[in-house]
Design brief:
Blueprint: H1 5-14, E1 19-24, E2 36-41, H2 46-58, E3 63-66, E4 72-74, E5 79-85, E6 92-97, E7 101-107, H3 112-121, E8 124-125, H4 137-142, E9 146-147, E10 150-151, E11 156-162, E12 168-172, E13 177-179, E14 182-184, E15 190-200, H5 203-220, E16 227-230, H6 241-247, E17 254-255, E18 258-260, E19 267-270, H7 276-294, E20 303-305
Length: 311
């Protein structure tokens, strides 16, 4: 469904935050790659988000939800529809349960690293291994983000969702299907807020675990170059994707300006001016080599979004 000037103005009436037309997605993703989207809309609150989702659903306008843009690749031809950014939704609340536990609620747009830093500073433990995982809390729930042997689902109590009809609903952990790097949510729903249950920790131990996570991540991942995070899911804990790609000699291999990181083989970095086509060509080169040599089908951890290039 084409976004007419009239519809764009109607969306502006719904959303008090930024509404941008023909904006390059390279501006809004950690990879710094991607063509133009027809429209980017940033609701300022949950009511605006609900109204926008209902409007888009009623008119069959394609949409995609984007948090911090850290685990995605937008194709060079861009996206024909509306990109709904949740970055303005940053509410944070702690409700203590007795003296040794708390329910921590974080809105979808709150950066995951901000959440980890805040709860650690307040003395609540469990999330320390997640320090440095890029992205927003909403994206972390959708992907069931994890590191160091823990994942978001380990702490999840409840997820507040907004349906494509604009309805506010809540789902407990028991109602959700989840596993390694996935969380199955009701079709068409969008994460608005997550509530996690955390335990009181010993401040000195929290600091130690946090520094351990920081040191490990800074030394093992390419923090200084644009990327989308880990490209592939790990086939198994004993044989992670990075190790497989490394032993096949892919570290440093490049297609154009897209390169397999010399630091961590499960990262593809943008050397400056890389295209989505170059990234996808490199991904396919890796996948086909791993399939032929190791008989393993690597599954993408990142999302590829947008229009196929060509006529």
């Amino acid at each position: 469904m084409k976004l007419t000037p009239n519809r764009i103005e109607e969306i502006r009436d719904i959303v008090s935050g930024r509404v941008l037309t023909n904006a390059l997605m390279s501006r809004f993703t950690s990879f710094r790659i991607g063509g133009a989207a027809d429209l980017i809309a940033e609701p300022d609150n949950l009511n605006e988000l609900a109204s926008l989702l209902r409007y888009l659903s009623d008119r069959a306008i394609p949409r995609v939800i984007l948090g911090a843009g850290t685990n995605v690749v937008f194709r060079d031809a861009g996206f024909r529809g509306v990109v709904v950014r949740t970055g303005s939704l940053k509410a944070f609340q702690v409700r203590e349960i007795g003296c040794d536990a708390a329910l921590v609620s974080a809105a979808a747009g709150l950066p995951l690293q901000v959440l980890v830093n805040r709860v650690c500073r307040l003395g609540w433990t469990g999330l320390e291994p997640l320090w440095g995982i890029p992205g927003s809390c909403g994206g972390a729930v959708v992907a069931n983000a994890g590191a160091g042997g823990v994942c978001v689902a380990d702490f999840l109590e409840e997820v507040k969702l907004v349906t494509e009809r604009g309805e506010h609903v809540a789902a407990s952990k028991a109602e959700l299907e989840y596993g390694y790097r996935f969380m199955k949510l009701p079709a068409g729903s969008v994460v608005a807020e997550a509530t996690l249950r955390l335990l009181k920790g010993v401040p000195e131990k929290i600091d130690t675990e946090l520094e351990k996570a920081k040191t490990q991540r800074r030394s093992a991942q390419p923090f200084d170059q644009p990327s989308a995070g880990c490209v592939f899911k790990n086939p198994s804990p004993a044989d992670p994707a990075g190790a497989i790609i490394d032993r096949l000699g892919f570290k440093g291999v490049a297609v154009g300006k897209a390169q397999v990181s010399p630091v961590h083989a499960n990262f593809i970095v943008n050397l400056g001016g890389a295209s989505a086509a170059e990234v996808l060509e490199l991904i396919e080169l890796i996948r086909s080599s791993v399939k032929e040599t190791e008989q393993i089908d690597l599954e993408l951890e990142i999302r590829v979004i947008g229009e196929m290039d060509g006529p």
